[in-house]
From TrEMBL:
Keywords: Membrane, Transmembrane, Transmembrane helix. This is VanZ family protein. InterPro entries: UCP033367_VanZ. The chain crosses the membrane at residues 41-56, 61-78, 90-107.
Length: 118
């Protein structure tokens, strides 16, 4: 299966940004026009999609690591005195990752069928 060439660097860049934003002091958190739950979910949907497209043959391992990692990254906030980890936030992140991974899996399956039939 051919992967998207941009997916691997994009996936790792997005993950690095997520870790920075999650662990950095609250004052460095970007301001957006949406709710924080929407921001969290969107970030993890994008990183889940990117990782699913980057590693199509390892999607099960990627899913386990990314969903468990979303909880672990949330709890890294214990390292910052201005942040506070919450199970609710970790759940939003894990759901976002799962949605992104599912979307990537669907895209990968669709591409497989195109390659077989084309």
């Amino acid at each position: 299966m051919i992967m998207f060439k941009f997916a691997r660097p994009l996936a790792w860049l997005l993950l690095a940004i997520i870790i920075f934003v999650t662990v950095s002091p609250i004052g460095l958190r970007p301001e957006t026009v949406t709710t924080v739950d929407t921001d969290r979910a969107t970030a993890y949907i994008l990183v889940g999609l990117a990782f699913a497209l980057a590693y199509p043959k390892q999607w099960k391992l990627v899913a386990v690591l990314l969903i468990a990692g979303s909880v672990a990254i949330e709890y890294l906030q214990y390292l910052s005195p201005t942040r506070h980890p919450r199970l609710h936030d970790a759940g939003i992140k894990a759901m976002g990752a799962a949605i992104g991974l599912l979307a990537g899996w669907v895209i990968n399956r669709w591409r497989e069928t195109l390659m077989i039939s084309g």
